[in-house]
Each structure stands twice: as structure tokens, then as C-alpha cells.
Amino acid sequence: MSETNDRPRPMTYREAGVDIDAQDRALARIRAHVASTRTPWVLSELGSFGGLFRVPESVGEPVLVASTDGVGTKLLVARMAGRHDTVGQCLVNHCVNDILVMGARPLVFLDYFAVGRLEPDVAEQIVRGVAIACRENGCALVGGETAEMPDIYRPGDYDLAGTIVGVVSRERILDGSRVRAGDLLFGLPSTGLHTNGYTLARKIVFERMGLGVDDPLPGVGASAGDALLAVHRSYLGALGAALDGGLVSALAHVTGGGLTDNLPRVLPEGLGARIRLGSWPVPELFHVLQREGGVPQGDMLRTFNCGIGMVAVVAPGQADAFVAALDEAGERAWRIGEIVAGERAVRYEGALW
Q1: Domain assignment present for 7
Q2: Do residues 164 and 221 both lie within one domain?
Q3: Does residue 2 lie in a domain region?
Q4: Are 243 and 255 spatial neighbours (Cβ–Cβ below 8 Å)?
Q5: Are 153 and 298 part of one and the same domain?
Q6: Residue 262 is part of which domain span?
Q7: How many other C-beta atoms lie within 10 A of the C-beta of residue 208?
Q8: 140-148 and 105-115: which strand pairing?
Q9: 3-class DSSP assignment, residue 335
Q10: Are residues 286 and 343 in the same domain?
Q11: pLDDT at 4
């Protein structure tokens, strides 16, 4: 055997499944989207090892608030539909809401995008959505990670997560300590499923009902894909003035666990919540999921937001001013219950329908 034949065949990273050139092409396509989110406090450029950001001097005794989250199996609906921009918006808005409940305003965002095989067009759609939501929330996209891992993800599969850092003045932190028995609960409307309950919703819509993403979802007035990919809204614009005015005692973002599990997270020991079911209009999407899936009411309330994406706890003496602040912001809310003495849990009265 010749010396040439004895040598092992050369191998490259691309042959192993990772295409650095594709990453460079993706980076070139997203650069403008990232730049569009820049704020005056950003000190670094895209491609740095870390993102540099100066805390605004206007915040007295600043406290940084950080949170990380993902989009869950809503990503599978995006893949089925071939539409990947809304999940980027959902990711940012979800994270914004999670720190908003602490009283914080967003400063910077970082995304993590892991794929089996990098497709620059898909990457650009996702980052475009992230950038849209960052601009809408006044948040700078200062970095992130794109990981191509063919041995972990199949071609076409991807995962998406994000980390947000915000700031709140120490005296304005919302930690539940201001909540008192007799405080009122106001529910703000959701824009669909947001980013929770998709494992159950997908099985109902695509398996039990046998629908495709482009098929009409009966009674909803939209295709299955449009209904399930509706953007998880941000509540920053709706609640900003009310927070600035000190009109809110606590906030609960209704995510995984629904009203049942999320509202107690912002209540002190010895206080619970009483919610009157039927005090707000439940969107038809949730009717369809309950009816077609035969989902018990308790599961509905612990799996889906059922039309309420954020709950504000407001002292009775601040209720009129709170409603007026929401009206000024073009927002609506329903009074759905009150804080009561007792176990730190949610007690329901009535029925959803």
C-alpha cells in the first residue's frame, strides 16, 4: 500500500455537520436587524465577546432584574407553517413581561438559537422578530449565540431561548409586600395562547381535529396556523403609566400554570385570591380547545391563560386612577376578583362558560 493510501481521508467541520460559512451568511443578514435595536446606552458592537451596556443615570438606586425563558413547542407550529418571525417577538415579549411584574423596564436582550442545520433565511426571520419586539419595548439586542448541532437536533429542528436584563429603582420594586386583603384584581386581555399550553393545543388541533396549519379553525375566524402563531403581547406599554404612578401593588404574568399557579407567586403568606369566572369574555379559541379536547375546567385554568395574560393587584383607593391610566394607554381590563385572607392559592367561583 502506498504512503498516500495509508493517510486518513481529510475531514472538515462542514462534513461533520457544522457550516461556519452558513453562520457568516446568517450573521451578515441579521446585522441590520440587530443594529436597529441599538439604544444610547449600548457601548459595544455586534461580534464582541460580550455586550456592554451603561445603566441609565435617571434610575435612582438601580436594581438589575434578569430572566431567561423560551417559546416551548410553539416552535413546532412555526416549523409546520414555515413562518418563524412571530416566535422571535413572542420570546422577547414573554421575557419583558416576566421582569415587568417586578416593576422593571427592559435594558438589554440576548438570544440563543440552536439548530440541527443552519438555514440563514430561518435565522433571519427569527432575529427580525426579536428585533421588532426589542424596538417596540425599547430594549437593545446586544448579543446572542447561534449553535449548529446536527448530533442533537434533526435538520429543520431548532430551539430558541432568550435572556433579558432590566432595571428598576429599589423603591419601586414589586415583590408582593404591598398586597393587602381587599385589594382588587384586574385582568388584562391576552392575544391568544401566548407561549404556553402548546403541547396540548397541538394535539387537539392537529391530531384530534385533524386540521392543517392552513385550515380554518372553526369559530375562530382564522386559520389554525394564524390562531396558534398569534404574537405573545407585551404589557409594558399598557402598564407603564400605572407603574410610574405607583398605582399597582403587584403583577402576575399568566404563563405556564395559568391563573392557578402564577397569581400565588406574587402573594405574601396568609393571602389568597378569589376569582369570579365569567367576569371576562373568554375568546373562542379557548372554547374550541375545551370542547374539542374535552379538557376539564381545572386543566383549562392551569394550562391556558383563558384570555387573561396579566393580572394587576390594585388597592381599592387606586382603582379609578388605575383604570384611567389604562384608558389613556388605549388598554382595557376587567375586574375579575379580589385578594382575601387565607391560603396562598386561587379560589374560583362560577364557571368559565
Answers
A1: no
A2: no
A3: no
A4: no
A5: no
A6: 184-349
A7: 11
A8: parallel
A9: strand
A10: yes
A11: 53
As for how many domains the chain has, the answer is 2
8 Å CB contact between 37 and 140:
yes
Q: Name the band, by pLDDT with cuts 50, 70 and 90, for residue 271.
A: very high
Residues 157 and 254 reside in one and the same domain: no
User: Residue type for 61, please?
Assistant: E
DSSP one-letter string for 102-165: TT-EEEEEEEEEEESS--HHHHHHHHHHHHHHHHHTT-EEEEEEEEE-TTTS-TT-EEEEEEEE
Instruction: Find out whether 104 and 168 touch, Cβ atoms under 8 Å.
Output: yes
- 61-105 tens-digit pLDDT: 999 999 999 999 999 999 999 999 999 999 999 999 999 999 999
Coil, strand or helix: which one is 288?
Answer: helix
Place of cell 402576575: 252
Residue written as cell 395574560? 309
Residue that is written with C-alpha cell 379557548 in the block: 286
Check whether residue 168 and residue 203 sit in a common domain: no
CB 15: neighbour CB atoms within 10 A? 10
In-domain check, residue 108: yes
| Residue in the block written with cell 367561583 | 349
Element (H, E) at 72: none
pLDDT score of 1 = 46
Write the DSSP symbol of residue 9: P
Phi-psi category of 210—alpha, beta or left, where left has phi over 0 and alpha has psi -120 to 50? left
The whole-angstrom distance between residue 52's C-alpha and the CA centroid of its chain comes to: 24
Domain with residue 265: its CATH number is: 3.90.650.10
* pTM of the complete model: 0.93
Q: Do residue 233 and residue 330 come from a single domain?
A: yes
**252 assigned to some structural domain:** yes
133, 262: one domain: no
CA distance 109 to 165: 6
Cβ count near 48 (within 10 Å): 11
129 and 233 fall within a common domain = no
Amino acid at 3: E
Task: Report which residue type is found at 21.
Answer: D
